[in-house]
Amino acid sequence: MSRTVFQGRFSHRARSLASILAISVKVLFRRMIGKPLVREWPISFEIGTLFWRAQFNRAFALKDIADGRAYLDSLITRTDMRPAVEIRPAGEGEPRGDWFIPSEQTSDITMLYFHGGGYTFYAGVTREFIALLAHWLGVRIFAPDYRLTPEHPHPAQLDDGLEAYRFLLRQGVDPSRLVVCGDSAGGHLTLMTLSKLRDAALPQPALAIGISPWTDTGLRGASQFGNDHYDLVQGYMTLQFSAWLKGEGQYENADLSPINQSFEGVAPIYIQAGGKEILVDMIREFAQTVQDQGGRIRLDVWEHMIHEFHGYGHEVAESSNALERIREAIAWATESDTREPFPAAAQTEIDQLIV
Predict the structure, then answer these.
(1) How far apart are CA 295 and CA 287, in angstroms?
(2) Domains of the chain as residue ranges with CATH
(3) Residues 6 or more apart in contact with residue 3 via CB below 8 angstroms
(4) Which of 74, 149, 286, 334 is most exposed by smallest CB count within 10 Å?
(5) What pLDDT, on the 0 to 100 scale, is given for residue 348?
(6) pTM reported for the whole predicted model
(7) Partners of 298 in the beta sheet?
(8) What is the DSSP letter of 93?
(9) What pLDDT score was predicted for residue 157?
């Protein structure tokens, strides 16, 4: 079970509490009259989706971005898995960030994890998800606290990502035992970093994983606005995140979008997405683009899920299934002959692209 934690300014905490209570009542009433948002969703999932949509909308509406970040962190949920993971701040001489060390480390794999948040937020719920991931996979994770927009536009995040990768290599991490992963904007940074490793004369990791990755900083696909009704992030947010990432306009979408980069000869890529998230169309196009380039990629899409549905862990079947698929992908990339395709999922509800 998860528990709710309130923190920060009283006005933020009060508004967050009022929001989750109002949304809970609305969802319960709608379900009583047989009108759930998505029939396949558990009640807690629908409440969570609508609540976090409201939180993000409120954070965007605040004039001061620091205030928006504080509001987003005024209510977080914490799973029972959290006590099983030590969160250790990076030491002197290390890039700014945190180590997530599970109490039961079952693998020698090191994961470099780039957090999501549109390059603008590093929310408390994201840190909770990284802890959950470390526990679930039994691997140590280094999550750099890269510079955020709008204060620090591109290429600050890519520079920080490459430096974090170099740091792990200097620490003696074998690239064949290194996995790079990220969610949303962190998935964007994962893919951009992977593409730029050759230019930086750095070895490729064993695997790159994108969880609902942002693959085009412009307009692409009907779902970008067409799935606003279902998703917790909204189409207009992608355009604002893109503007903040570009800064004063030195860069075009083609410069900043993974879909416009080369992935020929890079490490295998495994991507997961939800069929009802705003980014699903651009994610599918990206997977096809990499395939056309001759890259090795696999995409799994859970039909009824939204952006970053993984955070529910054991509480939602699709979430636990997706996390297990990540475990299987890492095992495939680090323990088997990767010349063979990544095994197909047994669950028929997953839309699969095998490359």
Answers:
(1) 9
(2) 1-79 (no CATH), 81-354 (3.40.50.1820)
(3) 77, 78
(4) 334
(5) 41
(6) 0.95
(7) 270, 354
(8) T
(9) 98
Residue 182 pairs in a beta bridge with 114, 210
Question: Quick check: 211 and 272 in contact, CB under 8 A?
Answer: yes
- CA–CA gap between residue 27 and residue 288 (Å, rounded): 37
Contact in structure between 280 and 330 (CB atoms under 8 Å): no
Q: How far apart are CA 182 and CA 25, in angstroms?
A: 34
Distance between CA 273 and CA 146 in Å, rounded?
24
pLDDT value at residue 249? 78
Phi, psi of 313, rounded to the nearest 5 degrees: 55, -130
In a 13 Å sphere around the CA of 100, the CA atoms on its Cβ side amount to 31
Token pair, residue 346, equals 């047994």
Report the alpha-carbon distance of residue 268 to residue 240 in Å, rounded. 31
What pLDDT score was predicted for residue 3? 79
Please provide the size of the chain in residues. 355
150 cis-preceded (ω within 30 degrees of 0): yes
Q: What is the tens place of the pLDDT at every residue in 208-235? A: 999 999 999 999 999 999 999 999 999 9
Q: Which pLDDT belongs to residue 82?
A: 65
Q: Where are the alpha helices (DSSP H) in 122-275?
A: 124-137, 156-170, 185-196, 223-226, 235-246, 253-256
| DSSP-derived pairing of the beta strands 350-354 and 297-302 | antiparallel
Structure tokens at 106: 């079952």
How many angstroms separate the CA atoms of 319 and 302, rounded?
9
pLDDT in tens, 292-345: 999 999 999 999 999 999 999 889 999 999 999 999 999 999 987 766 777 666
CB-CB contact of 283 with 299 (8 Å): yes
The torsion defined by the Cα of 87, 183, 341 and 136, in degrees rounded to 10, comes to 30
Residue with tokens 């898995």: 81
Write the CB contacts of 301 (distance below 8 Å, at least 6 apart in sequence): 272, 273, 274, 275, 280, 283, 284, 350, 351, 352
Tokens encoding 187 = 């998935």
Mean pLDDT per block of 10 residues along the chain (355 residues) reads 85 97 97 96 96 97 96 86 86 94 94 98 96 96 98 98 97 97 98 95 97 98 98 98 93 97 95 98 97 94 97 93 96 80 58 52
